[in-house]
Write a structure and sequence with these properties.
Length: about 180
């Protein structure tokens, strides 16, 4: 299996290769989604409990804390604003290079990028909202277009940039860079 660093996971750590089956426990079911915890890997993920159409609003969000520096838990709003999400379970959405949702930091809405079916894992592309990540990691998401090292929008190639939707802040940074 692959190792994914999620917003809600412990700081990046290498996971030993093993053949054990994962112990999955569903906790914090909400109307929208449920958090599943892989206890052995200390890894949380968020799975949808509803069907969403492409473009549909999955959830409004806000924040419970704001910091001037990024951490593995935060989502970037601007140069100096990094927030811990509210509702809190949204921080369990893992990174994927073929994401099905997007945090629109202008409207404060979590948006479905493509149809999502109940039972499907929600994933967002971390660099869509992060310019220069606090804890880069090696992605192993299995997507055909997996970008490998995930370290923020700053490090994406032009080809990669064309494939994704980015927050207003990241779009401003990209425009200033070119
Ligand atoms: Zn990947």
């Amino acid at each position: 299996m692959s190792f994914q660093t999620g917003k809600g996971n412990a700081p990046a750590q290498k996971k030993a290769e093993s053949n054990h089956s994962n112990v999955i426990t569903a906790v914090v079911p909400t109307e929208i989604a449920e958090v599943r915890t892989d206890i052995l890997a200390n890894n949380r993920s968020l799975f949808s409990r509803k069907n969403f159409a492409a473009g549909e609003i999955i959830s409004e969000f806000g924040w419970r804390a704001m910091y001037s520096e990024p951490s593995y838990l935060t989502v970037q709003l601007s140069e100096t604003e990094h927030v811990e999400l509210f509702p809190e379970y949204l921080e369990c959405i893992n990174h994927g290079c073929d994401p099905n949702c997007f945090f629109d930091t202008a409207t404060l809405q979590l948006i479905a990028l493509k149809p999502i079916t109940a039972g499907e894992e929600m994933r967002f592309f971390y660099p869509s909202a992060e310019w220069d990540m606090d804890q880069p990691f090696e992605c192993n998401c299995g997507a055909k277009n997996c970008i490998g090292t995930v370290q923020g929008a700053k490090y994406l190639t032009d080809t990669q940039l064309r494939k994704y939707r980015f927050t207003d802040f990241i779009q401003q940074k990209l425009a200033a860079k070119s």
